[in-house]
Amino acid sequence: MAAATPRELLLPRRRRANLTPWLFIAPGLILFGLFILYPIVQALQMSLYDWNILRGAASDFIGLDNYARAVQDDRFWLSLANSGIYMLFTVPPQIVFGLAVAMLLRSKAPVQPLFRVLYYLPVVTSWVVVSLLFKYLFADQGLVNWALSDILPLTDGTTSWLSNRWTAMIAICALGVWKGIGWSMMIFLAALQGVPQSLEEAAALDGANWWQRFRVVTIPAIWPAMLFVVVMLVIGGFNVFTSVLLMTAGGPGGQTEVVLTFMYQQAFSNLDFGYGAAIAVLLTVIVFIFSVVQLRVFRDRTDEESR
């Protein structure tokens, strides 16, 4: 029997080496398949059926009827508009205030870790807790009305914040901004650590003021972080759910309903899971389109600055 060559001896070792990474990522892949990929496929399937949850199976295949129903549903468009309003009025303030706070906390003063923790504390606080807190603050006899009437005499203290679409959206957006500033701050703070100090010093020696240094040196250096923050905040804005559900429950009369609360009502209150799944798919497509557009815009800006 011929002796094995060195190449033949190396083959099992190479196979083991190639198999090792897959063994490490296999648990993650299994969890991704069970809890992410399978629900997505199941939602796509359910959206094409008149799903009968009582039987545990689809009763009738109706194709794209659920999607056509959503396009013709005024309540769906209202919920989508409210989601867009929430996104428009929460994303820019979170970026501006988050970056401003990160710039202020950039120094290495002894008290800076304490301020960083204080600003980040709302981020790790439960959405349920802060939603109920803001519901109390904006109640008819809440602290906001008291402050606006007694401390700052701007109103008569009788504003019913959560009983009107626009004032309720103000309260919901205020919660979103307050809770999200700390997250944006941490991302920008990490990005600011990588800004070359030599470039800022050179710009200062050339006579650039703080705004010119910020615009020409700081912003280009943190542009990738800016892209990440914007994309994630837009996705989060369209996926607002808990605060709306607990503060207004979509009221009054569905005027503050967002896409996810509308989907939740259709699926779990009306047991219309096929229609709810179609709404979820439509929201996914909308968020995907927004993300692609943002990536394209930021990429074009990066290409222009690199020339």
Automatic annotation (TrEMBL):
Topology in the lipid bilayer is annotated as: Multi-pass membrane protein
Q: Which keywords does this chain's UniProt record carry?
A: Cell membrane, Membrane, Transmembrane, Transmembrane helix, Transport
- What are the residue boundaries of the ABC transmembrane type-1 domain, all occurrences included? 80-294
Q: Which domain of life is it from?
A: Bacteria
Primary location group: membrane
Q: Where in the cell is it found?
A: Cell membrane
Q: What family does the database annotate?
A: Belongs to the binding-protein-dependent transport system permease family.
Name by which UniProt lists this protein: Sugar ABC transporter permease
- Phylogenetic placement of the source organism: Bacteria, Bacillati, Actinomycetota, Actinomycetes, Micrococcales
